[in-house]
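User: Sequence in, structure out. Go.
Assistant: Echoing your sequence, followed by the structure tokens.
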Amino acid sequence: MNSHRPPRTAIVGFVVSVAMLLACLAWQALARPCLISNDAINYVDVARNIAAGRGITQSTLGYNSGRFPAEGDWPVPCRAQAPGFPIAVAGLILLGLDGARAATLTHVLGLAAAWVGVFLLVNELFGLAAGLAATAALLLVATMPGLAFHAWSESLAIALALFSTWAEVRHLVRRRVAGGAGPGGWLLPTAGALAGAAMATRYAFFVAGLIGAAALWDRRQPRASMRDMLRYGLAVLPFPLLVLAHSLWSGPAGILTAPPSTTSFAENLARVASVLSGARLAGAYAPAAWVVEALAVALLAFLLARRARRAGTPVGALFRGPRALLPTWAAGYATTTALLASWIFFEFGVRLLAPSLVFLALWGAALVVYALAASPRHVALAGTVLALVLAGRVAASPAAGLDPRPRGAAERDPG
């Protein structure tokens, strides 16, 4: 939200350092690909079948199913996992990469796209300094243990959701400037299509379409809102219809045959809060972590109120309109994960809650920059140092990825 543009050298330094981090991650993906989970191995298997012309099929009979079929032919239709990530991996396989390298490189490319999407989105909502800070925060999140450098579909889905949200925010800004005239153009259909593509990459991202549609409603402009929601919905719709058609054509939908849950919705919400707050990682130090976080939130609230008072704007303006999409998205996805985990059985941790973690991180970074009135130049310099440190850490990593757990432990708890 700072109006001063940073010196060109600061921007160039930040971009170069981010490119170095991306190059290190890409080198690790090509030199030492890492498939540590059953999901990653199955993604590669499905991608190989797609590249070989056998369709969206898997070689493992009964994988991710609550009941092992008594009979069947190989390969079998893949329904339990969304097809978007294997399709992207198959594209790289057709270019000549082997399956493991194609999968890990697809994840890295998804991270790079997410970094661009974060900058565009937060820059649109909060300004240049906040956009740089949010990008730096996502660099840190992307290299967290359990998230970095594995063949998982979250990064690609997150990138699609970020670009979808950015396109919708730009549309909302233009609609407000136009006084409800409802500008046409490519932004809203693009936002809807990207939200649908995110859902086709990870099923839990159906929440992206719901949140995107709800954000278009403005009771002061009901006619323009309804028109926009219809255009957005028509752009989203083809993707779930294609996934549904594939499931119905090949048999019962995979999620309907998944193992049933053994935990309640309330229990899963508590687990979600524990993961997102860091209490789960803190272990025995969880009570102290909660106290530190509460104090940090109180300090941030004080700084935000002081900055808003000096700027002559209400603090509530930071949490209304398009800016409310960030915390709403994080809360919506986290609640969806808890709801799904109370219906079907799966373990979730940092990885499966990464979408909520990303939106919380970029929202928090934007608020901190606003509260401190940080200049873009200082943010760019700090981001450059952070990216260089992370690049050195990745380059010096003796094994693929940054996961410090023993390999056996990582295989037992990939979430």
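User: And one key feature?
Assistant: The chain has 17 helices and two strands.
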